Amino acid sequence: MIPAEKFLIRLQPIATKKAPWLQVLLMCCSLFPILRVSSQPYIDPIQVRYMSALESKKPVATPFTHLWIGSDLPIKLKGGAILLFSPYFEQWSLDSAETKEIYPAVQSIAFPLGLIMPFHESKWTLTVLPIVRWNGEQLFAENTFQYGGVALAGYQLKPQQKFRLGVYANGEFFGLFIIPLLGVDWRIDEKNYLFGVLPGRLTFEHKINEKFYSGATFRAPTSSYRLSNGQYIRLDDNQISLFVDYYIGQHFCITLEPGFGVFRKIRTGINKKEYLTEVNWGDGPFIKLSAAYRIRLSS
């Protein structure tokens, strides 16, 4: 675990420091670590996740796979503001299972670029995160562009307890999608941590020892993708899972995460807010494997 304060340096002197790339990654950490607008006790400069949803007969569940590759690159600017670049790529491959519909693989590439601004001599912070992305059966094809953003106000109630309130908006193919956000970054004690921004993600993490961490996570992804026939497909999932992290060396982390998806839906349409089909994706189990170069932070 690395004390973040030692890396709080400005951009202009980094060339004279040792391991400058590592310092640039970490120098935002003592303020309010975030990953995709989600508070957490670590930074992943690179992470790969692969999820396989298993077929279930009772109830019927559609099997699918999901690949996600992303990065978090924070840079401290003059005056204490932090620039966060968090690009990612993802791909969904759906099996038709016992449904009558056949769905093609869809993918997304996104470029969130955030600015985190602390109010000097105050417990308040403001995060603004514009997001541009291309979602579709083919990347960068016609009518695959989306744009949106996040705004979050943060308040540090206690040294180890921070809360955030804000809003997420995105121009989905089914219409403007707006949802309120509630975030927490709470180090309960030396071994337990609660972090995330609902409704997107909430994680409870427990430290077993220096090599093993465990816990539970809730995620609720919602996205729409342009198909080659001009229609769009909307995917909604709610994932509840348990996880075990194992650290090989100081920074390489592998994760095993079994879980269960509930209230899943697949919808297709042409016009905004008008769906041609609506299919119950089916509740069912999944298994997720991930690997990350991870830098854990200390308070």
Write a structural description.
It is a single chain. By secondary structure, the chain is mostly beta strands. The protein has one domain: Porin (Beta Barrel). Helix content is 2%, strand content 63%. The chain is built from one helix and 21 strands. It has a 14-stranded antiparallel β-barrel. A two-stranded antiparallel ribbon has the order 3-4. A hairpin with a 5-residue loop joins strand 17 and strand 18. The longest helix has 7 residues. The N terminus is likely disordered.
Give the structural class. Answer: mainly beta
Note the run of SSEs as H and E.
EHEEEEEEEEEEEEEEEEEEEE
Number of helices: 1
Q: How many domains? A: 1
Calculate Rg over CA atoms: 20 Å
Q: Any idea of the CATH topology?
A: Porin
CATH architecture: Beta Barrel
Give the end-to-end Cα distance, rounded to a whole number of Å.
10 Å
Low-confidence stretches: 2-38
In short:
The protein has one helix spanning 20-26; strands at 2-3, 42-53, 56-57, 60-61, 64-70, 73-76, 82-85, 88-94, 106-118, 124-136, 145-158, 161-172, 175-187, 192-198, 201-207, 212-219, 222-226, 232-248, 252-269, 275-280, 284-298. It is an all-beta fold and 299 residues long. The termini are close together.
Task: List its salient traits.
14-stranded antiparallel barrel, Porin, 63% strand, 1 helix, mainly beta
Topology:
Blueprint: E1 2-3, H1 20-26, E2 42-53, E3 56-57, E4 60-61, E5 64-70, E6 73-76, E7 82-85, E8 88-94, E9 106-118, E10 124-136, E11 145-158, E12 161-172, E13 175-187, E14 192-198, E15 201-207, E16 212-219, E17 222-226, E18 232-248, E19 252-269, E20 275-280, E21 284-298
Parallel strand pairs: 1-21
Antiparallel strand pairs: 2-5, 2-21, 3-4, 5-8, 6-7, 7-9, 8-9, 9-10, 10-11, 11-12, 12-13, 13-14, 14-15, 15-16, 16-18, 17-18, 18-19, 19-20, 19-21
